[in-house]
Design brief:
15 strands, five-stranded mixed beta sheet, alpha/beta
């Protein structure tokens, strides 16, 4: 049933006709209903694309209909025999909240089962105001947004480092007072809802990985096996990594601390305590109005990632990128092109602006709750 936590299964993935795996199979069917959209999909097509028996598909779809998650979407002519009944997902059957806590701003969205935003709120935020004030302010904005809706839960995204599994913050760069704070438990107790906490970059990357593939132009998303890096430059700098269609968090959920790799020995002091980090170099350059320089620095870091992980795509996001999209895409892209020429390995890795815009992180945070329902990404 919905609520399973399959990782990386998507349209066309093979199902398994075992009772113990019916939650996995339901997620496969539910995801195909989601991707089919309003046009719907027939039970026969569901069986063909999952590898499940028609009887198993009938049982799963009956449960989904009984739960209000699926409904009939009309009939479609078949190649022989009577027309087939097609089914579709009921988007309004469930909702999830995505909460983005930036260093100076809060964004909260309410998304339906398709991930579409149906309500949104923004408010100023001082991440250094103390845990009690931040939790109370965030809970107030979430409650105001809900207006009586009972969501599946709240996904929270904010700067790291943090422990995604436990929902505990570490020494958030610039805000060491958060070290050890159990944000998940505090917010869950205040709201009376399930809460999942992750880094802003991971949330945004997850949102792309389970999306429609707008970033690649393929229309299929990345959950089928693609690998990319999402680089977020706003009030800080970090990365979200998707490897083989799944968000890569690392053994201690600390992967993606991209901004604090040192590329200039004895460079300017960073808030993390090191000198010459990409983050401080980028932010210093932006502060001086040298945006093209910041783009080249970001490109140097992106080149390191491409060389280390052999990824397919680099996506750029964050408010600083949004204010100078062309400069950053051109600057980072130039580094990728030079790397490809130097190595003679073919076409350079593409560099694009990430889909989602200003609320991409908040929408990705909602997917921390939604994606597991469809066997997508990681929950």
């Amino acid at each position: 049933m919905p609520g399973s936590t399959g990782t990386g299964a998507g349209a066309g993935a093979a199902g398994v006709n075992l009772p113990a795996l019916r939650s996995h199979n339901a997620a496969l069917v539910l995801d195909l209903l989601r991707t089919a959209g309003a046009a719907g999909i027939s039970r026969l097509e569901l069986a063909e694309r999952t590898g499940l028996t028609p009887q198993a598909v009938s049982k799963i779809t009956a449960r989904l209909r009984a739960d209000g998650l699926a409904t009939e979407a009309g009939r479609r002519a078949s190649t022989g025999g009577k027309p087939r009944t097609v089914l579709r997902l009921v988007p309004e059957a469930g909702h999830a909240v995505g909460l983005h806590l930036d260093r100076d701003e809060l964004t909260v969205v309410l998304c339906d089962l398709t991930g579409a935003v149906v309500a949104e709120r923004r408010a100023p935020l001082d991440l250094g105001a103390g845990a009690d004030a931040v939790v109370e302010g965030a809970a107030g904005e979430v409650s105001a947004l809900l207006g009586g809706v009972s969501p599946l839960g709240v996904g929270v995204a904010l700067p790291g480092p943090l422990d995604h599994t436990l929902g505990v913050l570490h020494r958030v760069t610039g805000f060491p007072e958060w070290d050890g704070f159990a944000l998940r438990d505090a917010l869950a107790a205040r709201l009376g809802l399930p809460v999942v906490v992750d880094k802003d970059t991971n949330a945004a990357a997850l949102g792309v990985a389970v999306g429609t593939g707008a970033a690649s132009g393929s229309g299929t998303g990345f959950a089928g096996g693609g690998s990319f890096a999402y680089l977020h430059l706003g009030t800080g700098l970090g990365a979200g990594l998707v490897i083989g269609g799944v968000v890569h968090r690392g053994a201690r959920t600390g992967a993606g601390e991209f901004g604090h790799q040192v590329i200039q020995l004895d460079g300017p002091l960073c808030e993390c305590g090191n000198r010459g980090c990409i983050e401080v170099l980028c932010l210093d350059a932006v502060g001086r109005g040298a945006v093209a320089e910041a783009a080249r620095v970001l490109g140097a870091g992106a080149g390191n990632l491409v060389g280390l992980l052999d990824i397919d795509l680099v996506l750029l996001g964050g408010r600083t990128v949004a204010a100078h999209e062309e400069v950053f895409v051109r600057g980072v892209g130039a580094v990728m092109e030079e790397r490809a020429r130097r190595e003679g390995g073919g076409a350079p890795v593409p560099v694009l602006v990430a889909p989602g815009g200003a609320r991409g992180v908040a929408e990705g945070a909602a997917q921390l709750l939604l994606a597991p329902l469809f066997g997508r990404g990681e929950g």
